[in-house]
Amino acid sequence: MDFASIKAKADTYWRDLSNLEHPLIHIGMGTCGRAAGAEAVLATIESTLKDIDPLARIIKVGCIGMCYLEPIMAVRKPGRPFIYYGDLTPKKAEQILTSYLLKDDPKAEWSICTLAENSANGNGSIDGIPRFSELPMIRPQVRIALRNCGLIDPENIDEYIARGGYSGLNKALSMTPEAVIKEVKESGLRGRGGAGFPTGLKWEFARKAHGTQKYIICNADEGDPGAFMDRSLLESDPHAVLEGMVIGAYAIGASEGYIYIRAEYPLAVERLVLAIKQMRKYGLLGKNILGSGFNFEIKIKEGAGAFVCGEETALMASIEGARGMPRSRPPFPAQAGLWGKPTNINNVETFGNVSAILERDARWYASYGTEKSRGTKTFSLAGKINRTGLIEVPMGIKLEEVINDIGGGVRKGKRLKAVQTGGPSGGCIPAELLHLPVDYESLAQAGSIMGSGGMVVMDEDTCIVDMARYFLGFTKSESCGKCMPCRLGIKQMLDVVQDICDGNGQPADLELLERVCEAVQKGSLCGLGQTAPNPVKTTLRYFMPEYEKHVIEGKCPAGVCKHLFHYEIDPDSCTGCTACARKCPVGAITGEKKQPHAIDQTLCTKCGTCYQLCKFDSVMVK
């Protein structure tokens, strides 16, 4: 089947869907939606529609990015835009469907926004309901890699093709491989896995490498705490990534490719398996792809979930059946990669952008971003922020726009303390630097990295020393132990920081930490060890007074390190409401009703329940 026939079939399907004479329901069934209860909501939708309109259609879509509102459902009546509803329960979903479909009352007070068919721009409106593009979380975004997420059925290849999918591959196959590489180079796309190496240049190295057998690998081994960009993209739009892989394979001359994905992403694996089957059926994978004479196959390799396997050489060792441990470079993968053959590795988001670049063109993509960091970047917003979720913004956007405008600021009106970018390999950027543009150079200058896109927001209740201890604990557990600086150095850093958290720190420990950071960074074999000191280095750089409070004054200002603080009740502001006494799990709080209460320090376990419950700020951290 040629591409014109494939596209015509998909367009017919999409047109019929757009003109459906019955209600159409989208329900977010990504991992975030399911975790929030989407399966129970779906069951209610199915039973409710049987009574209202048995011909109504339900489509399971991926995550549209507003994870904080999951479960999310979108309802479209014929001739009208979709109306989105969030924070659903089965009962609420039933009430919405009954009200809108039977009484034409859309229950605007429960809605999020409207979104018109075939548009990510939010055209189409209903009185009293904002458009998708008008939402504060959406307005500053530019969705390229996420262009289809939450808008199509990820298990239906026709929906992807109808929205422009595989047009980029069809176009690439009409070009020479060198012209495809030139297009990617001119787009300015840099690897979105963290290192930021120019993608087109990387492809050129692999293209020019000697060897008849070459490989291309998609690195989907997402393991950063707080990061879920790759998982969400693969669950919501697997074909965008697969199309980018085929384009890359054609460009470098690879006949075989692998997707290396951790087994703990079962939904993403399931949808990739289905998508690959659909590609083969349509002649988009296998022999003589779209009649071009180009042959390419993709295999899925499920990893065991080792963070170090995000490193290229460790990842390839794992595919080869060996223990996932890195090796020194050179030779680089482009020279001698998988089974000693020339290999190119890019991450999920990079391939998702490649398919969009070939569908449009390099100039369009390069029009976004900054001079050195072109295009857009996806981030998973997590931590103490009001609007958690998956976002995509132009490179160069200010951190404060991401945190305040898109994320809605810090929860419960708390003061922002820091933003962790790049996960355990990144650094903590203090609130004072929120004016920084988000691009590779600016983040590196601040001591952090872009990483794959995890962005964790911390408020004033976060102990920065405890946070450094957490990330060191993670990297220590994930170190493969092959090289001594990483194996022993991270443990030594962790021991020192643990001592500080336990109240056993000494002033000399701070200088020791800095020296060990330098040694681990310079002496480690791979990126895990080389970047593991980043959380410590940046917190020492920006939050030294907080370290000094721990080691000199023996206090934890945030009230997190249990050995360094205790709770007290201010008798002047305590109203004697008894809320703290009733909820204290160990009965450490006593006092008469409407009289000041007190905490028995010998019984208190410092669980913080009283601190969190008190509406009068009478519980103090001392």
From TrEMBL:
Question: Among its keywords, does the record have Metal-binding?
Answer: yes
PROSITE patterns per the record? 4FE4S_FER_1, 4FE4S_FER_2, COMPLEX1_51K_2
Q: Quote the SMART domains the UniProt record gives.
A: NADH_4Fe-4S
Q: Which GO molecular function annotations are given, in alphabetical order?
A: 4 iron, 4 sulfur cluster binding; FMN binding; metal ion binding; NADH dehydrogenase (ubiquinone) activity
List each copy of the 4Fe-4S ferredoxin-type domain by range.
Answer: 565-594, 595-622
**What are the record keywords, sorted?**
4Fe-4S, Iron, Iron-sulfur, Metal-binding
Q: Which family does it belong to?
A: Belongs to the complex I 51 kDa subunit family.
NCBIfam families the UniProt entry points to: PRK13596.1
Any idea what this protein is called? NADH-quinone oxidoreductase subunit NuoF
- Gene this protein is translated from: nuoF
